[in-house]
Design goal:
Four copies of one chain form a homotetramer.
Chain A: H1 12-31, E1 35-36, H2 41-52, E2 58-65, H3 67-72, E3 80-81, E4 87-95, E5 98-107, E6 112-120
Antiparallel strand pairs in A: 1-3, 2-4, 4-5, 5-6
């Protein structure tokens, strides 16, 4: 890509980490708040995956929305807004020969939707 | 619905307008900025429609993302962020016997993505 | 405004309801998910108010983010994401001689962040 | 922080890059679409900065919204939605003794709001 001059100070491994992290931050803040139900969860998961896979260096995105929480949370309106504790996401980014898996899941002990680097190959 | 006590001051027609308008404002501000390309536009349109149809009184949502703009706007990254001028949306809301069509489209003469009531039945 | 031809089928009262509802839906879906803490809540409230007051027919927006929830929810990261149950909002819209107050607050009995028309003058 | 076990496979420098990148992706997708005008731009800049500075390892965020574009773009509604080409952002993240500057600005030659690592100390 012709953007390479902007990344001369970092290694391929750092570039893969950088791009995976951008996509995870983007995914969270773009889609949190979206109305969702048992019936629409699959369509939403696929659309999130497809849109976020467009970003630079992103090879694959896997999104799982917690179906149990969707069932338990149901009110009379039959849907809720997507929240951080319902999301379990993997983002696989590659640059050169490096492949990174960035993960986001709600970590109970931290009370926080933690984003971290799950593996580096 | 048990929320009816909150809507005693307005007519069924006003309620349908109210709910249709909420959904249009919500749709715009939830999804603007989403990465999109020719290849993912359809999946995104369907996911937007399904999620916004969950909202109260909403019977149908039709979303069209401008394919020509997607083609023209392409950079070397092969995708762009969803912008207001690419969206053409119909939201159909019903309450009692009233049916409202709320529309959003970019109006060139106003330089603005206008939301308006297209019809009332 | 020169957009009046788009609103010929609805009354001034309906127009005020329409614009107030758009702004409430927009506010919710634009800002849900924003990082917030006790220290930044006031700045965020003011920025939300100022930005949403820009929309057509909107005279005033009042946003309150629940400080108790911010305090209780604190994890070791010292902030959380803005959620629907922390928001209490009033949007005042006017068209012609009509003034509408649209309200959003989390209603416990509905388990839902209800948006409704609080008053019409 | 007690989240350190999740970051054992990466270096301090990579951690700083990771957290800076998350915040840049988050900032973009949280706030794109927000109504903004010459009068409200400063309040919005400050609120974005304060909210994004809450994220892990983020020491400083500087947001500039292009005032010329706000002036040129004005329609009869006297505001527009925040778009990618109006944003110029610096995010400074630190971990251990490493300090990273992540930058986002619209790069004309790429037709793209590029996020990149501007410096590493």
């Amino acid at each position: 890509m012709s953007d390479e001059k902007y990344f001369q100070d970092i290694t391929p491994r750092e570039r893969a980490i950088f791009e995976g992290a951008i996509t995870m931050g983007a995914l969270f803040h773009q889609f949190i708040g979206t109305p969702v139900s048992i019936k629409t969860a699959k369509s939403l998961e696929r659309a999130i995956e497809k849109s976020m896979q467009l970003q630079p260096c992103i090879k694959k995105v896997e999104v799982k929305i917690d179906r149990e929480m969707l069932e338990e949370a149901l009110n009379e309106y039959q849907y809720i807004s997507l929240t951080e504790d319902m999301l379990n996401v993997k983002v696989i980014s590659e640059y050169g020969e490096v492949r990174i898996v960035v993960r986001m899941r709600y970590v109970e002990e931290l009370h926080y939707p933690l984003m971290y680097v799950e593996s580096v190959d």
